[in-house]
Amino acid sequence: MFAKNIWNYILNFYPEGPKPYLKTDVLLTLLYRVGDLLEKEPSIIELNGEVTVMGPIYGEGDSLITLLSLVGMPPQRTYVFLGCYFGLGFAPLESLLLLMCLKCLFPNKIYLLKGHLEEPASIKSLGLDDWLFRRRVPRESVLRVSETVMRTVAQMPIGAMIGPKILCLPGGPGPTIREHGLAALRTCVRSSMSQLDRLLCMEAAWTVMKLEGAPVTADDGIPTFTEAQCAAFCKANNLTLIVRGRQLVSIGGCLERYARA
Questions:
Q1: Would you give the end-to-end CA distance of the chain in angstroms?
Q2: Domains of the chain by range and CATH?
Q3: Global pTM exceeds 0.85
Q4: What are the transmembrane regions (predicted)?
């Protein structure tokens, strides 16, 4: 019922309409259940067969439910989401909560990767506490719910393999990932305090592509890779391609032949 209510809110949204009413106990129960599922998943999900990979949602709930309706709902379809469920769209919380409901209902059909907007600093800067308060979460409960949201999304896997040849990452192959390879990503411990594991997790979510020959800009600290470095990484790790979230494309595509290669 909770998932249906969220879907209906997104479907019937209009700017002047009321925000949904999120009951604290229902919200926390959902977060705890999803957290338990995510904690048991490896850092790199291993999948085979037909998989639909969905790019960043950025809180655009109408795009989310439209794509789910067009492609098909689980359990008929298996999905990997490339992070960044939050954002500046009209339904940042609702988009994440709808996917969490689907994760609880179909844990082996919905896989939620961690993007850079699921980092604590990003979540706070986007205004999670204010989102919760405007959805009528009591002020005295906002901090508890907010911290639970951040703990839950911190447990999301950092990547996924589709067959032996396709790697899905919200970010991309940053310098640490390129140095240590796919094996290090697979053995990475998300809750680890080791510098290597933390760098691997950060790069998997944050890394952006740098166009070769583009003018040098100020270093903002975000890890980068070039097309040549990506090709070298794929060759060294026996990959056909990397499907990533932080890159605009005009259309999607079918990569079935690569997954079976």
A1: 41
A2: 2-157 (3.60.21.10), 160-259 (no CATH)
A3: yes
A4: 79-106
